[in-house]
Amino acid sequence: MTDFHTGLGKNPANYQPLTPIDFIIRSAQVYPDKAAIIYDDLQHNNLIQSWSKTFERCRQLSDGLRKLGIDKNDTVAVMLPNTPAMVEAAFGVPMSGGVLCTLNTRLDINALTFCVQHSEAKVLIMDSEFADLAEIIDETFPNLIVIHATDAAIEVEDFGKMTYEELIASSDDLDNWEKPEDEWEAIALNYTSGTTGKPKGVVYHHRGATLNAVSNILDWDMPKHPTYLWTLPLFHCNGWCFPWTIAERAGVNVCLRQIDAELILQLIAKHKVTHYCAAPVVHNMIAGGKQEYKDAIDHKVKGWVAGAPPSETMLTAMEAMDFDITHVYGLTEVYGPVTVCAEQPEWQDMDVAERAQKKSRQGVVSHLMTGFEVFKQGTTDPVEANGEEMGELALRGNMVMKGYLKSRKATDEALKDGWFRTGDLGVKYPDGYIKIMDRLKDIIISGGENISSIEVENVLYKLPAVQSCAVVAAPHDKWGEVPVAFIEIHEGSTLQRDTVMAHCKQHLAGFKVPKYIIFAEIPKTSTGKVQKFELRQAAKSLAHETPKVTASSE
């Protein structure tokens, strides 16, 4: 047997830890004058910043943080919208040796306090938009160093130890930064939404961040120098790792403080945006924008959608705008998207309804992920690839989290048997594509029969008036549980309960038809995810009522 080990070990010449910091170094060297960041709100801000300047500012941020006492594995929290400071933090914080904790910008004070305390943050960079929380944070955490990231669009009094620009200006050593000695070192900490309890702190490593960034490129066939619009919150899984993806491609980050359909359309046209990511609700907003702004877009635009499958209505509207929408799937625990509904050439010959059916699936594993499977619950036995047998979706590979911060039990449970258990139920088709049927906790059991809330929602989305919907279980004396549909309709549209019921009876088995139709605004997280736990609470009040009391939009 040949010895391929002795004298053939790792050394600095043949092994370097993977880190996305290398991406910004290369882009600054190779494309120093190419635009890296554009911040243009068409009113107050009009910034264009090159890759060489961005790299310089990231090094200044690293030095400034180190001068404040940040060292290896110290947490630097940021509460920022999709502004240039947020893009710079994706590099400057890990270059300081610190771990970047991007906080959900819609956190209430209790959740914010929990995350700051649990993460043991030493520095918190806060945008002007959250000035009302700064005083409370100062009082609660007297040793926390608060940095005020100002913005020309918002007038507030300065707060904290210094402004973000003062922190950048405090730097006098552009070499005071580092890369990880081990690619397993933590690069980021992301908190789950905490919809069923306290948020869990998900720890990312440099290796996973690097591979997910590159996998995004491969999954999207992304060319050099793309122009990427930040419609996706940068706090959400570090923007699905796209700050690092765009740096690798020497692309342009078009920053966006708030979701506004008209501004989005104008920025796409003005800056020739080529790529963006968003939840279905944002795609729907774009599709429903003013025609004059849509007409101004004369180039191909590619979008990723996640959180829910693209509906036939949304897909039709986006295709009419020459937008190419691809469905991806992932979770906070896997750095964002790790599966993609890779489109087959023959799908283009299908009508839009058939194509929407194909594109609604979560698809196949991403290029740099290892495994995507559907297991019979509680086992590692795959379900039959027949599109019918349901099981739990599981993932494995280098883009799975290190684990949950300070929670060995939850980590071991999530990663047992060498797979990450997602909590999603789905099926596998003969072509190998996988489709989610429901969250494990969202399945409705009525009279002993399983009802997929997602299946019912997909039927409801076929109604053009439906902007958003969610189906949950209501307790029932006879059947145990019955489905309840909450529906939010497009502004200016009308929809009657009888129309919804007739539509559902046409497309669903009788026991799957919602017994209650409630027209209301659907509560969502800042990433567009429906907060079903709130709707379940509302549905409980229907336990002893009859379907006749359901509401109508007219």
Could you explain the architecture of this structure?
By secondary structure, the chain is α/β, with parallel strands linked by helices. The chain has a domain at 442-549: 2-Layer Sandwich (GMP Synthetase, Chain A, domain 3), CATH 3.30.300. It contains 18 helices and 26 strands. It has a nine-stranded mixed beta sheet, sandwiched between helices. It has an eight-stranded mixed beta sheet with strand order 7-6-5-3-4-8-9-19, sandwiched between helices. The chain has a four-stranded antiparallel beta sheet with strand order 17-18-20-21. A hairpin with a 3-residue loop joins β24 (466-476) and β25 (480-489). α1 (21-30) packs parallel to α9 (242-248) and α10 (261-271) packs across α11 (280-287). The longest helix has 17 residues, at 51-67. The protein is globular. The protein starts with 20 loop residues before the first helix and ends in a 14-residue tail after the last helix. Residues 546-554 have low confidence and may be disordered.
